[in-house]
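Q&A log
Question type: sequence-to-structure
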Amino acid sequence: KGVLMVETKGDHDSDELEIIDAGAEDIGEGPETGFSIYTAANRLAEVKKNLETKGFVVESAQLQYVPKNLVEVNDAVTQKKLLELMEALEEEDDVSAVAANFDFTT
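Response status: OK
Response body:
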């Protein structure tokens, strides 16, 4: 998926309508005062251009693996092992990005 992070321009509701008009497939809350916008991978550049034309500041625009299904992991030992595995993969020089589909509920 194409994932874009943008800052809000002010009015949350009107911003969402403009983002949808720009071609977003889905909108989520950003890390702070903005939005996470999801679009088809082949439309990332087009949606980014449309958002900039509408006056949004695009903080980032990139392709990401977004899981269709999350696997809940409730066991503390398994959670620890998964985190250790993710950290080990991220530390490898030959690895540029790591994606996962697990979710810790506790």
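Response note: The mean pLDDT is 89.
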